[in-house]
Amino acid sequence: MTILHLTSSQRRQLRAGLRQTDDASYFRRLLALAELDRGATVAEVAERPGVTRQSASNWARLYEAERRVGALRDGYGIGRPRLGTEELEALLQDALRQRPDQLGFPGPNWTVPLLQEYLQRCGGVRLSDDTIRRQLRRLDYVWKRFRYVLPPDPEREKKTRHPPAGAGLARAECAAG
After folding, report:
1. Which band of pLDDT confidence, cut at 50, 70 and 90, is reported for residue 169?
2. Is the pTM of this model over 0.70?
3. Given CB 3.0 to 4.6 Å as the disulfide criterion, which of 2, 4, 61, 109 pairs with 36?
4. What DSSP string describes 111-172?
5. Domain locations in the chain as residue ranges
């Protein structure tokens, strides 16, 4: 397919789209259609804006399939659907109001893996660590990672090489006195 044949009403729609748009990508696609309608080849049309022949050919095929200039707009939001629904968010909020040991989980504080397990058990969906962390951030939930702190050693002075600075001074004063 090298040439596209448009009717007069389709040409009017194309020119109106070219005048009204402020999206450069959409403008480039509409311009390519106008060039194909004038008799330019796909290779010539692709060379001007610096795209591949395949792209220019795809634009023409897309227009021919739908017969409307709006079909050439970028389609955003087509990605993977969200797993975190309002029900899972409500489950997460309910979980955060309680301690995990009250719900039969080990430990007194929630961790991301525990929340994952809870949501999978109650909601039937296993969310990723990042998804749970993003959701916690959206809920303004602040957490810190646990840090293990050992209790102070009562025999530390005996085990150190040098006694504290104040201990040496006290001995010197006793010897002088």
Report:
1. low
2. no
3. 4
4. -HHHHHHHHHHHHS----HHHHHHHHHHTT---------PPPPTTHHHHSSS--HHHHHHHH
5. 8-72, 86-138
